[in-house]
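Lab notebook, bench 4. We co-purified these components, and the gel suggests they stay together. Before we commit to crystallization screens, I want a quick structural picture of the whole thing.
Request: model the full complex, all chains together.
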Amino acid sequence: MGNTLVEIACFVETYNFLDREEVEALERFEGVAESLGHSFEFITKRSLQRIPLYDALFIRATTDPSYTAYIASKIAWESGLRVLDDPHSIQVCGNKIHMYKLLQKAGVPFIPTLYLTKEELHQRTIEDAFEKFGRPLVLKAPYTSFSKYVEKTGSEWGFRRICRRFFRRSDVIVVQKFMPTSFDWRVGVLGSEVLYVCKYTIPSGRWKHGTKLRGSNRVVWGRTETLPRDEAPPPLKELALSACKAIGDGLFGVDLKEIDGDFIVVEVNDNPSIYAGEEDRKNPDIYGRIIDYLAKY
Amino acid sequence: MPRCTLVLVVSDLAVGNTESQVLGSHTFLKSWLRDTVLNIQPDYRYMRMGYYVSMQAEVMGCPVIPSCQDSLDAYRTPIFLLRASKKGLAISPYVVSDNVKDIMFEVDFPMILFPLHPASNGGYKVVHSEGSLYRAVRSLGMNQKYPVCAENLFGRLLSLKTLLGAVDDPIVARAAARVYEEFKLPIFRLIVQVVEQEPYLCSLAPVHSEELTPEDLRVLSERIGAVGKHFG
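Here is the predicted assembly.
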C-alpha cells in the first residue's frame, strides 16, 4: 500500500448497500480516509480471517453478540487492532438489560424499568407491572434494534402474547413505562465527546421512530432533524456523556426523551446509524473524526 | 461498594457441599448480593439464564466464573479456536466463510461444519462431498445469511462432557483442563479430534441438563471447593 498511513477495514453486510443515504455515508468514510492518506477497504463475512492483516476495523453491519459482526470485532480485538465497535460495547449495548443495569449502577436517569424472567410470567406479576407503570406499558426484548422488538400493550392478554414471543430468544426481558413524545433526541458520542445531535421525530399517529405498517413489511420512519452540536442543550449533552461513561469509550448513539424540560435516557446504542444528509447534515466533520479515532494509536 | 468476600454458588442444579452457600438463578437475579460468584449451569449461551447470572454479578462488580465475555467467546467457534491457539493449544485447521468454493480451496474433505447463526446450540455436520457441503452451508448458514466454520476432519471425533476442567478421557484430559483455565466455563462439551494420541480442538458446546447424571452432580459438588484458586 506504499505510503498508506493506516489500513482500515470496514465490515459490512449486503443490507448496508440497500439504502442510498447509507451507501453515500460509506462512500464519504472511504473518501475521507483516503484523503487523509489511509486505505479503506470493505470486507464481508467471507474475509473474517483477513482482519488481522489490517490496522483498524470499523464495523457498519448490525452488531449483536450473536451476529457475525461480534466475531469480526473480537478477531480484531484479539489481534490488537483498533476497533469500532469493540467487543465490550457490543456485549453491553446489544443487551438492553445489561445496559440498563449499568446505567442504574452509575445513577444515570433512564425510563422506569422492570426486568421480567420467563418463570415470573404469571397473572400477579402482570397486574403489578400495570399497577406500577399504568396502561399501556412497553415490552422490550433485550436484543432490540432499529425500533424492532419494542411493543406496547394495555391488556393482560397482549402482555402474555408479546412476552412469550420475546422469551423465545431471551430468558429475561424488559418492561417499561410508556412515555410518548413527539421526538427522541439522538446524541452521537465518540471517545467521550459529542459528535452530533439530532431529533428523531415520531411519525404522525405512531409512537416509535420506525414503525412497521400493519399487514406489511414496510417500515415508516420519522424525519431526522439535525442541529449543530454546539447549539444543543448542555444538560442533554451532559446526560448523554454520563450514560456513555457508564458503558465504555467507543462510538455510541444515545437516545433520550425530554419531558417537562428534564431529560432521561431511553437507551444507549453502539454502532449508531450514520446516513448522508441526516446525522451529518449540521456536523459534516463526523467522518473525519471517526477516521481519526480509528487511525489513532 | 462493599468488597466481595464469600464464594457463592449460583446454580439450578442439585450441587453444593457443606462449605458453600447455593442460591438459585432467579433468587440471585433479584438480589443485590455482593459475593464472589461461582455460576454453575449447563448452558451459558447468550441470553440464557446462565449468561444473565454472570452478567448480574459483573454489574455488581463481583468476581464471577465464568465471565460474560468468556461465555460469549467459548461458544463462537472461530473465537474459541483463536483464543485457544494463542494459548498454545493444538487446533484443527479451519476456515470461516459462506462460500463453498472458498471452503473447498482451504479445507480438504471430510470436513466438520459448525454453524455461526444466533440460534446454534452446539450442533455440527460432517460432510464428505461437494454436494453435501453445499447443502450443509445453506442449512447451517440459514441460506447464506451467516458463515460457517469449516474444519478438516482428519482424526477420531470425540464429544466429551467436561466438569470443572475434568474429563473422562486421559488423552484429552490435559487439553480440557487448559480450555477450562482459559474460558472457565464450569460445565461444557468439548469437541475434539484425536490423531496419534494427540487431541486437536474443534469446538465447545453447552451441555443439556438431562445429560448430567447424579454422578456428574456429585463430582461437581466435590470439586466446588477447589475452584476458589481460579478467582483472580
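Chain B has a mean pLDDT of 92. Worth comparing against the SEC data before the next meeting. The radius of gyration of chain B is 19 Å.
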